[in-house]
Specification:
The structure holds two protein chains of two kinds. Chain A is an all-alpha fold. Chain A is built from nine helices and no strands. Chain B is built from 17 helices and no strands. Classes of the chains: A mainly alpha, B mainly alpha.
């Protein structure tokens, strides 16, 4: 990568796998469980978090020397809240149906632990460019898990992907439903998201033993 | 002699190789091993784990055979081909070859799928993790076909078994380490994943789903359906006091999951397990007491007229408190599932608390949650989660008491 130095590049690539915010740091689980029943909602959620985290990281990083440390949490909250309101209003304006599906969870991006975690752990101590990359990297790591979980939950739970019925029509019994296949209703329920995330964590740690902590 | 020595030779031959656990498992399943378990939950008995499990399976066989007869009986009864039983347990209408064969051809595939898939997963994990095959699945594999509706599609059962064995047991470290009862994990998975196959009035009688489909497609057949007693009660039909229903539900001539209908046989199996010192009588007794207590509370609410008659809980609450023991899967769950030595409480005092709460919550869920007509599955799973906590406080309480005694002595 000519564009980025090796150190900068690792800011983006590390959170994708070996320092993934969801599977390794176990942050941002709540939203990963709540909105991954459909792939489309997962993607929108991931993009929203990407926007909030990348911009927020830069803003906090720029202000890092003038924020009094006693009230830094309040300042961070104001920054996140502002960005989340922007996302919420954009969704309501351009993707109203989707914003209905995501309902309160867009607003709850404010409480997404990944965002506050990155502000605290990274943006307060690093320059804006690095913070920007860190924000991108972490939200991409978040996005990967969300998309994988959303993919399996929608495929097995509803038999469709992005709303497109890839497995056939369960009511008129076409596609695989002709042979007696049925959608797995458990997949749509939140507990199954927890189990799918658990399986991802399991696979990841069995591939890379260094990640196993006691 | 032939088979044993052959197996022994094979075992020696494959010793240390990847396939060794598979041969060891077959060998020790069929014959008494030379060594017994060195650790784990069954340390007190001379028999090893496999012998213990075989005893439980032995206790399950009558339920299985009865389930086969009952499957055919319910099928022909729903079709109107035979009369309802008139005599006692040995009614000639019930114990016919026709009845048996219907059930046999439906239930044997369930057993084969349950064992085949479950043991396959166990063998796979044993080979990957390089440990011996654990015998934990022997009982689970027999329990599973007994607690599902007879018409469940085999592939669903297979998916659920894979889920139950992997998520319910293997990820915790295999037999003896699991938190949840694997058989109930499998049933819970089926229940939440494919609710249309696990509840309603179509799935409990052999062939009902197929006929409903054919009628929808335009065939001129009589529809057959069979609601379970519990299902009818949950819908507000007070069926239990009609005719022989109460007696029938004790003997088991009612629709339901394959092997759980006959309370009589389950009680006998329970006594056998207590006599063989395998099932915990504390859990069974306290669970029954818990169920009776909850039933009495509900009956009290009714007799105090705190609940208007149009309430959807009225009929279930009004069910005589001891009738609850006879219907649904309560008896089966109490005798075979709640007593699972791995997932139940280990301390004696803990067993009383655990069992009581299983019974208590079973009836509570049964009455208050019309979405889940049977509460015993969820009650046992819930208490499985709490069993270690109960044990922890029992042990802690014991330590405290002894410290106090010590202080009193030395002071």
């Amino acid at each position: 990568m000519g564009l980025l130095s090796k150190k900068d590049a690792s800011l983006i690539t590390d959170p994708l796998a070996d320092n993934n915010p969801i599977t390794i740091q176990v942050l941002g689980i709540c939203s990963a469980l709540a909105i991954t029943a459909e792939l489309e909602a997962s993607i929108v959620m991931a993009v929203s978090v990407l926007f909030v985290l990348a911009i927020g990281n830069v803003v906090i990083s720029l202000m890092r020397n003038i924020i009094p440390s006693k009230i830094r949490i309040i300042v961070q909250l104001i920054v996140v809240a502002t960005l989340v309101i922007v996302v919420d209003l954009v969704l309501k304006a351009f993707a109203y149906e989707l914003s209905k599906t995501l309902s309160v969870f867009v607003g709850l991006i404010i409480t997404n632990c990944i965002i506050m975690g990155r502000f605290e752990a990274f943006a307060l101590a690093n320059g804006p460019w690095k913070s920007f990359l860190d924000g991108i990297g972490n939200s991409l790591g978040y996005a990967i898990i969300l998309v994988v979980v959303g993919f399996f939950r929608e495929l097995l739970g509803s038999g469709s992907l992005l709303g497109f019925p890839v497995l056939g029509n369960p009511i008129t019994k076409t596609g695989v439903y002709e042979f007696g296949y049925e959608n797995n209703g458990f997949m749509i329920m939140p507990p199954m998201a927890l189990i799918v995330v658990g399986i991802i964590i399991w696979i990841q740690r069995s591939k890379n033993k260094a990640l196993i902590e006691d | 002699m032939g088979l044993k020595s052959n197996l022994h030779n094979l075992k020696e031959k494959y010793k240390g190789t990847k396939m060794a656990p598979a041969f060891n498992a077959i060998h020790t399943f069929l014959y008494l091993p030379n060594e017994t378990t060195h650790n784990g939950t069954h340390i007190k008995v001379a028999d090893d784990l496999k012998r213990t499990m075989n005893t439980v399976i032995l206790a399950l066989v009558p339920c299985l055979i009865f389930g086969m007869f009952n499957a055919g009986y319910q099928h022909y009864l729903a079709l109107g081909d035979i009369e309802a039983v008139s005599g006692g347990f040995f009614s000639s209408e019930f114990w016919t070859m026709d009845n048996f064969l219907v059930g046999f051809w439906k239930i044997i595939p369930l057993v084969i799928v349950s064992y085949g898939v479950g043991l396959g997963v166990e063998f796979l994990f044993a080979v990957i993790k390089k440990h011996e095959v654990e015998e934990g699945y022997l009982v689970t594999g027999m329990l599973v076909p007994l607690i599902v509706p007879i018409d469940i599609p085999l592939w669903m059962l297979a998916v659920a078994v894979v889920f139950g064995v992997v998520i319910g047991k293997e990820i915790f470290g295999g037999t003896g380490m699991n938190i949840l009862n694997p058989a109930l994990t499998i049933r819970a998975f089926l229940f939440f994943a494919y609710p249309t196959w696990m509840s309603g009035d179509k799935v409990w009688v052999e062939g009902a789903v197929k006929r409903t489909q054919e009628i929808a497609d335009g065939a001129t057949l009589d529809a057959i359906s069979g609601e379970t007693i519990l299902g009818s009660l949950a819908q507000g039909h007070d069926v239990l006091n009609q005719g022989n229903e109460l007696w029938n539900s004790f003997l088991g001539f009612i629709p339901g999951s394959v092997g759980e209908t006959s309370t009589l046989l389950i009680v006998l199996a329970g006594l056998f397990l207590i006599f063989a010192k395998i099932g915990s009588w504390r859990i069974m007794l306290s669970s029954v007491l818990g169920a009776l207590a909850m039933g009495l509370i509900f009956n009290g609410i009714i007799s105090q007229e705190w609940l208007p008659e149009y309430s959807k809980f009225y009929v279930l609450m009004n069910t005589e408190f001891w009738h609850h023991l006879l219907i649904g899967g309560f008896a089966f769950g109490t005798v075979f599932m709640a007593t699972d030595p791995v997932t139940a409480s280990q301390t004696n005092k803990g067993k009383w608390i655990y069992g009581f709460l299983v019974g208590f919550f079973s009836i509570m869920i049964r009455v208050f949650n019309p979405g889940y007509p049977e509460g015993v599955m969820l009650a046992i799973l819930l208490m499985n989660v709490f069993a270690p906590t109960i044990d922890h406080y029992v042990v802690k309480g014991n330590v405290k008491q002894r410290l106090k005694r010590l202080k009193a002595k030395t002071a």
